[in-house]
Design a protein that fits this description.
With 385 residues, this protein is an alpha+beta fold. The protein folds into two domains: 10-102, no CATH class; 111-375, Putative xylanase like domain (Putative xylanase fold, Orthogonal Bundle), CATH 1.10.3670. It is built from twelve helices and 16 strands. Strands 9, 10, 11, 12, 13, 14, 15 and 16 form an eight-stranded antiparallel beta sheet that branches. Strands 1-2 form a two-stranded antiparallel sheet. Strands 3-6 form a two-stranded antiparallel ribbon. The longest helix is centred in the N-terminal third of the chain and has 16 residues, at 120-135. The protein starts with 9 loop residues before the first strand and ends in a 10-residue tail after the last strand.
């Protein structure tokens, strides 16, 4: 093997730093493993290597490996440069040790950095909640208790209907002070997942909210939003965010055509005059016909209540034509062990706890039962921010 030595020189085009390393091809988003053999280095060579690594670890450079630029916050990689040398011994492959791992994951951003148009009261609400969750070590709780704890922080918040449809163009709506029922459920879930994984960043929250709200986890216009709960549940179950437990809690199948959006397009401002968008909704509704639907009828709810956990997403199955559910919230464990409903209530104009889930369902003549989904705890544990 030819003798090698490490050299560092500026890449004037990118203001980068090149480090002589012996690495396999790197992939974006994987840690860049910077290796060298200090046993074969002279003192000067070691000093130069350490200096370069410190520069790289400080971030802000754009480097290359094998001619391929890598993205990421640190934008780090090595570039091979072999130069004959008389002052370095031979470095056998067996002595190469992977010693330093540099994470190229983007730096977490605050909610103010991520959503610069969010007003200061909304920003403060998010920051206060996350700071409190961290201080109380809520992440140590099981996910069902985390969801209930987070949801309780919003009791008394104002109900405002139609928030997701207020803008002319589809945008990621974020609110921590006012909600409709869907926005409340998605916000609490996204916050709870962050608390569970100790990711208290604003950028992490926004990423999780988008993942919950849109098909495949990516916002791509109005039709990409998961408008029907059956679609929302199916898509999020596929991606491991929740699990449909309706059938295992005693639920039965039902066959219902979901087409209220296309049949009553005049009720949806964006569909009323946009034929192309309307056609996208028609095609989406046609695909929903292949998704199995289950619900727990009112007369089977009593035994199911013993199996429902706090934090379970509970949606009311409606008898209305073309629609699957009419309302959503979270199962709530009362102090006496009974199950209530934590939800953004249009009737009461605020986020509240209804003491009895069963009474709430039985007392509504347009509701024939419930659909239940269970949040899944994220597996990734982030370092505390």
């Amino acid at each position: 093997m030819a003798k090698q030595r490490s050299m560092f020189f500026p890449n004037l085009g990118e203001f980068g730093v090149h480090l002589c390393v012996n690495l396999p091809p790197l992939r974006y988003s994987q840690p860049a493993l910077l290796t060298s053999s200090f046993r074969a280095m002279s003192t000067l060579k070691k000093s130069m290597t350490i200096a370069a690594l410190l520069l790289i670890l400080s971030g802000g450079f754009s480097c290359y490996y094998g001619g391929s630029q890598l993205g990421g916050y640190a934008s780090l990689a090595g570039s091979i440069l072999s130069v004959p040398s008389e002052d370095a011994g031979t470095i056998p492959d067996s002595t190469i040790a992977r010693t330093i791992a540099v994470d190229v994951t983007p730096r977490p951003l605050s909610i103010a950095e991520t959503m610069p148009d969010l007003d200061s009261l909304e920003v403060r609400s998010f920051e206060n909640l996350m700071q409190l969750a961290d201080a109380r070590r809520v992440y140590l709780m099981p996910i069902d208790s985390i969801v209930q704890w987070v949801g309780e922080r919003f009791v008394g918040s104002t109900y405002v209907g139609g928030m997701l449809d207020a803008a002319d163009e589809e945008q990621l709506v974020v609110s921590f002070r006012k909600f409709d029922c869907v926005l409340f459920v998605e916000t609490v879930l996204a916050l709870s997942e962050g608390v569970a994984s100790r990711d208290y960043s604003g950028s992490g929250f926004v990423r999780r909210l988008e993942t919950l709200r849109y098909r495949g986890g990516e916002m791509n216009g109005y039709a990409s939003r998961l408008h029907y709960f059956s679609d929302w549940l199916h898509d999020n179950q596929i991606r491991g965010n929740v699990r449909d437990v309706t059938e295992e809690l005693g639920g039965v199948g039902r066959s219902k055509t979901l087409n209220i959006m296309s049949k009553h397009r005049r009720l949806y401002r964006r569909l009323a005059t946009d034929d192309s968008l309307h056609q996208e909704i028609v095609e989406m509704e046609a695909r929903l016909a292949t998704i199995p639907q289950y619900y727990i009828p009112q007369d089977l709810m009593r035994p199911a209540l013993d199996l429902i956990k706090p934090g379970d997403i509970v949606s009311t199955a409606t008898i209305a034509r073309g629609l699957d559910v009419s309302h959503s919230g979270f199962a709530y464990r009362n102090a006496d062990g009974s199950i209530g409903l934590l939800h953004a209530s249009s009737a009461n104009g605020e986020v509240m706890v209804t003491p009895s889930l069963r009474d709430y369902v039985v007392g509504n003549r347009l509701v024939e039962g419930i659909v239940v989904a269970r949040p899944i705890r994220p597996t990734r544990i982030a370092a505390a921010n």
